[in-house]
Design brief:
The chain is mainly alpha-helical and 305 residues long. Helix content is 57%, strand content 4%. The chain has three domains: 32 residues; 65 residues, no CATH class; 180 residues, Cytochrome P450 (Cytochrome p450, Orthogonal Bundle).
Amino acid sequence: MELPAAWVPFLAVVLATVLFLANIVRRAGRHAYRLPPGPKAWPIIGNLNLIGMLPHRSIHGLSKSYGPLMYLRFGSFPVVVGSSVEMAKFFLKTHDTVFLDRPKTAAGKYTTYNYSDIVWSPYGDYWRQARKMCRTELFSAKRLESYEYIRNEEMRALLRDLHEASGRVLVLKDYLSALNLNVITRMVLGKKYLHKEATTAATTLEEWKWMFDELFLLNGVLNIGDSIPWLDWMDLQGYIKRMKKVSKMFDGFLEHVLDEHNGRRLLEGESFVAKDMVDVLLEIASDPNLDVQIGRDGIKAFIQS
């Protein structure tokens, strides 16, 4: 529909006014703060054009030009990057309480039950409780020592597999990755899932490998919608669609794990003894005296972490 001629001058004045005020605000912001050096930002995208497929390497390259404290714009958001021992101490020790929170991203929302895990949860009572659980229950020295037999058994299994493969070309990284994940899954879930015989009703070996790889990848990508929120609904890179898919698959697997563990708890009754970290989490979550109650999604998010 064509606009009436009388509206054209009015809209032109409104647009010019908005642009003028935006320019004043931008200039005022520059004078209000002594910002660190950094590359000139483009409209809308900021400095995203300088960030490649490996953001940490791109930022490292920029820091060589602009120094250990650098100012960037990721779309709509200002970002200050510290890339030296002194700057790390400044942000992570001297002023750690100011910079504790992670930004809310699509990865935290879609792959960790709406920021319910240990990594993505915002600073507050829930985060403090999660930190205390990790320190005193899940990763205490006594708890980790109790799993030493698992590490020994898996190391012997690795050496046996390498001996059987002797004389053939092999990719050592695959064997070490399997060792690492087998140790973790036995400590956390009670049995190993990354093994040719280790399949469950909830997943297959191939799906298990794919879910892990996809989760690691998607929690490290630079999603455009996180930096330019008004573009988020378009999912330009397809990352959100992938996050929803892997989250749904992983949720089915974790539901199976929880059902198995709850079944054993009910079967053994008062003689039940926690054997892995899922058992410990279920015991903690059942405590009515917790400062913040942990629901089923919270337990799954902790397991995933």
